[in-house]
Amino acid sequence: MRSAVALWMILAGALAAPALADVPVEVRAHEEAFARACQAGDVASVLALYADDARVVWPGQGEESKDKTGLEKLATRFCKETKGLKLTITSLEAKSLGTDHIGVLGHWEITSIGTDGKPIVAQMRATEVLERRGGKLQYVFDHGSVGVPPAP
């Protein structure tokens, strides 16, 4: 009897381990898909990463949306119209919020080319909630901020 219980515990642990181990990999893949699509100016692929009712707040006054129409405007302005855009994930943390939701805290470096032709580099933080819908992850909340510069 004891060996049967031990075998069951080993099997249960082995079956549960891949699901837990895959969450950060899956989240990183989702974040990297955003970076690739946005850098390429592929707004349709950016939109596909978001739920239809996603709430988005990006850095910049007034950069908020409650639906795909609003998000399309934000993504077009940022992903298509930012000259020399490069997005780099510098850190990423994910925490399960139940079976279908994942909380994400990420730090990004955003590089672009200014109107003077010189590079602009900004550090951004992102706080997100991803939800599994139809077998795939989608952003349902996406809040990005650059913070206030340190005092001189």
Percent range of helical residues = 25-40%
Got a strand count?
6
What integer value in Å does the Rg equal? 19 Å
Number of helices: 3
Q: How far apart are the first and last residues' alpha carbons, in Å?
A: 69 Å
Mean pLDDT: 86
What percentage of amino acids are in beta strands?
35-45%
Order of helices and strands: HHEEHEEEE
Structural class by secondary-structure content: alpha+beta
List the helices and strands and how they pair.
Elements: H1 2-39, H2 43-48, E1 50-57, E2 64-65, H3 68-80, E3 86-96, E4 101-113, E5 119-133, E6 136-145
Parallel strand pairs: 1-6
Antiparallel strand pairs: 1-2, 3-4, 4-5, 5-6
Structure explained in plain terms:
The protein has three helices and six strands. It has helices spanning 2-39, 43-48, 68-80; strands at 50-57, 64-65, 86-96, 101-113, 119-133, 136-145. It is globular, with a radius of gyration of 19 Å. It starts with a helix and ends in a 7-residue tail after the last strand.
Task: Kindly summarize this structure in a few lines.
With 152 residues, the protein is an alpha+beta fold. It has three helices and six strands; from the N terminus they run ααββαββββ.
Summary tags:
globular; 152 residues; 6 strands; 38% helix; disordered N terminus; single chain; alpha+beta; 6-stranded mixed beta sheet; 3 helices
